[in-house]
Amino acid sequence: MTDYTRAEMMVVAAARELRDREIVFVGVGIPTLAAILAKRTHAPNLRLITESGIVGAMPTRLPLSIADPCLVTGTQAIVSTVELFSLYLQRGWVDVGFLGGAQVDKYGNINSTVIGPYEKPSVRFPGSGGACEIASLSKRTVIIMPQGKRRFVEKLDFLTTPGYLTGGDARQRAGLLGGGPSVVVTDLGLFRFDPVTKEMYLASVHRGVTVDQVRSNTGWDLRVAEDLHVTPDPTDEELRVVRELDPTAHFLSREA
Question: pLDDT 10s per residue in the chain (256 long)?
Fold first, then answer.
């Protein structure tokens, strides 16, 4: 088995959450890397949609932005943003919203707007883009981000994108049509959601990671599954594709 980094494990684990023939609304960066990996391995008929209006993107390399020309070549359709959101997302045609963020809380809500007070933040990020609509309307959401106590927080500095809001049936009461987050994938493990409370719990740790290590990088009293699993290692083929797509480690550190 080839050595791999935790960042590579994160991308591989996220790619495995995608199924063949699904339609995935994907953000640029690590989510795109995972989606292309899925398409090149176990899900060849996966259809990628980006905010720039690209439908059925078939990039031959990793795009650096939603306007990267590699997303256009060979694509199935190019539509306006209005058409994309109204004809695809609002009709309920998107199976998976594949998102990242700066912070996530225990109900899968995401902050990608600011760190600190909104009026005087210490860091300001690009904001929602289409993430709020994607998470509100997709059949399910897959969240991917490196884990740390400043990212896995008890309370978001700003709620950009809804997960299960305050838990329980709060999402349904808010009138959100999509199914909500199904999994959060990090460089330490996989987190799923209780079917009743909608609170996140640790379902799987990556090889070499301990529960204490995960808890020390989580900002709340984390629940752990009784049947906690160990994430299967990446295959040689999965690692080959990841490294071929990101040869200079633009998105993934090669450090373990």
Answer: 568 999 999 999 999 999 999 999 998 788 889 999 999 999 999 999 988 898 998 888 888 877 788 888 888 999 998 999 999 999 999 999 999 899 999 999 999 999 999 999 999 988 888 899 999 999 999 999 999 999 999 999 999 999 999 999 999 999 999 999 999 999 999 999 999 999 999 999 999 999 999 999 999 999 999 999 999 999 999 999 999 988 877 777 654 4
3-class DSSP string for the chain: CCCCCHHHHHHHHHHCCCCCCCEEEECCCHHHHHHHHHHHCCCCCCEEECCCCEEEECCCCCCCCCCCHHHCCCCCEECCHHHHHHHHHCCCCCCEEEECCCEECCCCCEECCEECCCCCCCEECCCCCCHHHHHHHCCEEEEECCCCCCCECCCCCCCCECCCCCCCCHHHHCCCCCCCEEEEECCCEEEEECCCCCCEEEEEECCCCCHHHHHHCCCCCCEEEEEEEECCCCCHHHHHHHHHHCCCCCCCCCCC
pTM, full prediction: 0.93
Closest by Cα among 112, 183, 207, 189 to 147: 189
Rounded-to-integer distance, Cα 100 and Cα 111, Å: 9
Residue in 8, 17, 22, 51 annotated catalytic = 51
Cβ atoms of 206 and 6 within 8 Å: the answer is yes
Go through the chain and tell me how many residues it has: 256
Q: Would residue 51 show up in a list of annotated catalytic residues for this protein? A: yes
